[in-house]
Structures are given as C-alpha cells and as structure tokens.
Design goal:
Helix content is 49%, strand content 11%. By secondary structure, it is an alpha+beta fold. The chain has a single domain, classed as Cytochrome p450. The protein has a 5-stranded mixed sheet with strand order 1-2-8-5-3. A 3-stranded antiparallel sheet has the order 4-12-9. Helix 7 (141-158) crosses helix 8, helix 8 runs antiparallel to helix 10 and helix 10 packs across helix 12 (249-280). The two termini are 25 Å apart. The model is unreliable at 240-244 (pLDDT under 50).
Length: 449
C-alpha cells in the first residue's frame, strides 16, 4: 500500500514550473524519474545545481570530504532569523566549538537512560489527558505531538516544565514556516542576501514570540542559580569553569532556540506520521500491539523496558524512511571539486534529499510501501547507505538517539491504551517547508483498546 505524496509528473518540470512548485511545496518538484536516477543536473543563474542520488556521492559530500562542502545560503538564509549562528548553521571552528559544548548533552548510554524516565513521565501525562476524553473524541495530532515533544525537550535539556508555553511555540513556529519556511527563491536565483524577502516582517513577529519563551526559560535558570549537571545551562557553565572557550549570551540564546525548536519539531512531525501510518495498516498495528502487550504486560514502562521492543523500533525506523522530518538539505562546493566523473565548479549547489533516497527504486524493494520488517535485521539499516534520516558524517544530528528513544516511548505507550484512526474524509498531504509536516494537520479519532 502506498501512502500520500504529492503528484509526480512523468517528466521534469520546466524551469518556471519547477520554481513555482518549489515555492508551494518542495516535494512537488520531483518527477517520476527522480526516484530512479543517480545524478540530476539543473542550471541556475550563475551556478549549477546537482541532485545526488548515488550513495557513494552522498557519502563523499557528507562524510569523506565534508569540510569541502558547506551549508548553502538556501539552508541557512531562512533559518538565520530563528536560529542565529547556532550549531545547525555554523561552520568550521565556530561549529566545532558549539558541537563540543552541546553534543555531550545528547549522547551516551547513561545520559539517554536518564532521559528515558522523563520521556515516560511526559507521555503518561499526555495519555492521562486523553483518558478524560469521550470515546471517539477528535484530536489534532500535529498539536498533540508538538505539545509532547516540546515538553520532553524542555524538561530534559532545560530542567523546565514548558506546559502553557507549548501553545505559543506551536503557533509561532507554524507562522514562521508559512512565511520564511518556504523555499527562498531569491537565494536560489543568486540575488544578494541583504535584499528583503517576502514574509520577513511576519516571520520576525513569530521569532519575537519564540524568543519570549526562551527568555522565560533563561530567567527560570537564573532564578535557580544556573543549571545542574544534567541540563544545557549546567553544561555550558561547567565549560566555563574548566577554562574552555565559552559561548557568549547571543550564542547561548541561539543554542537554546535550536535545542527547543529543532529538539521538538522534527520529533513531533515524525510522531504524527507514525500515528497516521499505523492507522492505515491493520497488520502492522496489530503486530505492534502484540509486542507491546507481551513485553510490557499492561504496566507503565520503566527505563530500560523500551529496549525490549524491536518491532516498535522497526516501525519508527520505517516511519523515518517514508517521512523523514528533514527531507532535504543542501551543500555548496567551497572550490572546484570532483564528484565521480564530474567536475563541480566553485559554488555549485548540491541537493541531498532523504525523501528521494529513502524511496529510490534502485535501493529499496517496494519503496513507497510501509514495511517495518525491513528494519528487523539489526544490520539492515547500517548496510543501506541510502538511509539518512538524521544526516551522516561529522554533522549527523547529535540528537538522533534522543529522538529515536522518545519516538519508541510515545508509540509504545500510546498503543498500550489507545487506537487512533484518521477522521473520515480528512485529507493528508506531506508538505515540505523547513520540515516535513502534514499540510492540513492530522485530525484523528481516539478509541480505547
């Protein structure tokens, strides 16, 4: 069974059609052949655009020669007002400083084990709210998933209960994605970055609202005398006592904003798609419920229990294959370089699209089908170099383990007590903005098991 994706034209779009489609939905630019070709080329004003669908080329750009390919203006320009010069955007030594400061917070078995308890607590609170609803009640899952993911990241990274501020984050980020979250055609066409972009004023209002939430968190940190050894404020303060180069106040703001937004937005969208896909496949949903019932026996899980749920983990991996939250990213060649038999000119724009790679007909059987079993082989994911939901190489997402753990936790605990089914007549379409989200939301009906 195939699942929603924008219509795929039989042939490549003409330049003006391509630009119009990209502005509306970045997924709709891909024709049918894009899922079978290994390398595609398009000439832009003043430079070349290359789409890399060959795993070897992708690994060259992201892993083996990552220092020669930097994040392009198409990546950082729409994010700069939101994330400043944070870890996601920065380059070279600035990036290395930030990575050294932030990565320890999101990696390591002991730290992730400690976070598992916070995740279980937050999911249990969400499910307790659902228990108060009538059978068949309608939930807007894009909001429910955002509320949960934002609460988890706030408690884990800031030791702060977000609670009522989650609605501000949800609404402001939606507004931002509808304005500056669209593809920046002016950068793509080579226009200078100082020229105003459509929607900048409205996007700035959204940023001000988000900065208000970050300032509330920072003020709470200041009132309690700083962070502790388990959260982001404490980690940054410890760096100072060890004599390392530290982040200034602007850099701290940027990293707090990145942690809050990137830390929840991608996970929330992936969780939305998980609930949707499970609602569309009774076979998979029943298999998942069987594993959860057998391993958890109706009890609220405790840290360590999630490791006993390989099928739930496979479901999450397959969700990330079909609907990768970061569905596309770009790199720019610092200088002239070789890619296979091709010579790339300085400034060439390279597009790497997990949306294409994860559905490529040369590398996946039934690529558009929802088949979690393909990930039950522990080595399957490692062997398939086309699977990059969190990127690859030195800039791989440091929060990958955190996100996987949270998704498994939410999917498993939800399945213990509830089923969610798409509201009849609801239209579901993936929309490519800054992240891959349901274009019209995701209205679902709640029933108790």
């Amino acid at each position: 069974m195939s699942h929603p994706c924008p219509a795929m034209p039989a042939r490549p779009l003409a330049p003006w059609q391509w630009l119009t489609a990209a502005r509306d939905n970045s997924l709709s630019i891909w024709h049918q052949g894009a899922f079978t070709e290994l390398l595609m080329h398009r000439r832009l004003p003043g430079r070349d655009l290359w789409v890399l669908n060959n795993p070897g080329d992708v690994r060259q750009v992201l892993v083996r020669e990552a220092e020669y390919y930097i994040k392009s203006a198409e990546t950082w320009r729409p994010l700069r007002p939101l994330l400043g010069r944070s870890l996601f955007i920065s380059e070279d030594e600035d990036w290395r400083l930030r990575r050294r400061a932030i990565a320890p917070l999101l990696t390591g078995h002991e730290r992730l084990h400690a976070y598992e308890g916070l995740m279980i607590e937050a999911v249990d609170e969400m499910l307790s709210r659902w228990e108060m609803l009538e059978q068949g009640a309608e939930l807007e899952m894009s909001w429910e998933c955002t509320r949960l993911a934002a609460e988890v990241v706030s408690r884990a990274l800031f030791s702060f209960r977000l609670e009522g501020h989650a609605r501000t984050v949800y609404e402001a980020l939606n507004r931002y994605q509808d304005t500056l979250g669209r593809l920046d055609l002016m950068s793509l066409l080579g226009l200078p970055s100082w020229l105003p972009r459509p929607g900048e004023r409205e996007a700035r209002r959204a940023v001000v609202r988000l900065e208000g939430v970050v300032e509330t968190i920072l003020e709470a940190v200041r009132r309690r005398g700083g962070g502790d050894h388990r959260d982001l404020p404490g980690l940054l303060m410890r760096a100072d006592t060890k004599g390392h180069e530290t982040l200034n106040s602007t850099q701290v703001r940027d990293e707090f904003m990145l942690a809050l937004l990137a830390g929840h937005e991608t996970t929330a969208n992936a969780l939305c798609w998980a609930y949707y896909l499970l609602s569309q496949d009774e076979r998979v949903r029943s298999a998942l419920e069987t594993e959860v019932d057998r391993e958890l026996a109706g009890a609220t899980p405790t840290p360590g229990d999630l490791a006993r749920l390989p099928y739930v983990s496979a479901v999450v991996s397959e969700v990330l294959r079909l609907y990768p939250p970061i569905y596309q990213f770009t790199r720019q060649a610092r200088g002239e370089s070789r890619l296979g038999q091709r010579t790339l000119a300085t400034g060439s724009l390279l597009v790497i699209s997990p949306w294409l790679l994860h559905r490529h007909h040369r590398f996946w059987k039934q690529p558009h089908a929802f088949q979690p079993e393909r990930f039950l082989d522990a080595g399957g994911r490692r062997r398939n170099q086309c699977y990059i939901p969190f990127g690859a190489g030195p800039r791989v997402c440091p929060g990958a383990g955190f996100a996987m753990q949270e998704l498994v936790c939410a999917v498993a605990m939800s399945a213990q007590r509830f089923r969610l089914d798409l509201r009849p007549g609801a239209v579901v379409e993936p929309l490519g903005r800054l992240t891959l989200r349901p274009r019209y939301g995701l209205p679902m009906l709640l029933s108790r098991r």
